[in-house]
Amino acid sequence: MGNGVLISFCHVSFSLIILISWLHQTESQSDSCDFFQGSWVQDDAYPLYDTSKCPFILKGFDCQANGRLDKLYLKYRWKPASCALPSFNGEEFVRRMKGKKVLFVGDSISLNMWQSFTCMVHVAVPQSQYTLKSHGNLSTFALPDFNVSLEYSHNVYLVDLVKEDIGVVLKLDSIDNGNYSWKGYDVLIFNTWHWWVHTVKGKNQPWEYIESGGKKVKDMDRLAAFKEGLTTWSRWVDSNVDPHTTQVFFQGISPIHYDGKGWNGPITATCQGETKPLNGTTYPGGLPPAVDIVKEVLGSMSKPVTLIDITMLSLLRKDGHPSLYSGNEGNDCSHWCLAGVPDSWNEILYAILSTGDKASRLK
């Protein structure tokens, strides 16, 4: 009888060890969950904020105020396939980040993300006083009660634009602007892409020449230019950022929806009139070529940079653009309505800062 009890006890103990090991393994897998693979699900708890409660939102992003009548696009939540995305807690965020500075650097898509984040934080602590100041290319949203600042630096290429005798030159191998504007921050979120390919000389192109390898040319393959410029940025990060004091993110490639073929729609279709996301987890038209370039450059860096890989989840949201409701003429299928898709980008950013291994220094 004694032997039977001993065997039974050993069997139970061994089973408990296996169970604990399995639970630990599951927890570890959850900790390293891929937040970027998943689908959009309808959730009546969304949106995360009412833009009328965010007095500083730019007119171009406030689609409801600009006359958009449908509201279903506001009611979707991003759901990762293999884990739960932590709920955004703005009050917890500002308390954890007390005394810290966050800088978004990039084009108007970066502005889109920054505006989303400031609205999410503001509505979470509505009784706290805030200041919003702009000087040159820098805008600063600050919460004095928490000594927290969320800043945005408008910089469409990251590398330098220099005015010379022959005209404005885009210097692919120069990034002096970073030395005086990107240092001293606890979190840096960089973005560049749209201006590399969506500009036309004489219309919206801010340069006359590109300088590559010491040679000035009128133009060159834009993907090659993007890769060279991004590589210069990566070298700046590797040479100037201390990962013990500053966490660096790269905001991934934000897609456009001007071609219905991408989602198996009519050739003439755009985001105009779209009211629902695509079902499923993949986009029929595939990923933009810039995605591979970003991953290649980031993968070759010596300092850690976290990619906020927003491309696929955003490709599924053909309904999320301002379209005719930007307050300007034209059909805008590049930027995003707020509230909307960029809120999910920031939910993921918050999750990484709050639970990621590298985020522990922020706690």
Automatic annotation (TrEMBL):
<protein>
    <submittedName>
        <fullName>Protein trichome birefringence-like 41</fullName>
    </submittedName>
</protein>
<dbReference type="InterPro" id="IPR026057">
    <property type="entry name" value="TBL_C"/>
</dbReference>
<feature type="domain" description="Trichome birefringence-like C-terminal">
    <location>
        <begin position="85"/>
        <end position="351"/>
    </location>
</feature>
<dbReference type="InterPro" id="IPR025846">
    <property type="entry name" value="TBL_N"/>
</dbReference>
<comment type="similarity">
    <text>Belongs to the PC-esterase family. TBL subfamily.</text>
</comment>
<dbReference type="GO" id="GO:0016020">
    <property type="term" value="C:membrane"/>
</dbReference>
<keyword id="KW-0732">Signal</keyword>
<dbReference type="Pfam" id="PF14416">
    <property type="entry name" value="PMR5N"/>
</dbReference>
<dbReference type="GO" id="GO:0016413">
    <property type="term" value="F:O-acetyltransferase activity"/>
</dbReference>
<keyword id="KW-0735">Signal-anchor</keyword>
<keyword id="KW-0472">Membrane</keyword>
<feature type="signal peptide">
    <location>
        <begin position="1"/>
        <end position="28"/>
    </location>
</feature>
<keyword id="KW-0812">Transmembrane</keyword>
<dbReference type="Pfam" id="PF13839">
    <property type="entry name" value="PC-Esterase"/>
</dbReference>
<keyword id="KW-1133">Transmembrane helix</keyword>
<dbReference type="InterPro" id="IPR029962">
    <property type="entry name" value="TBL"/>
</dbReference>
<feature type="domain" description="Trichome birefringence-like N-terminal">
    <location>
        <begin position="32"/>
        <end position="83"/>
    </location>
</feature>
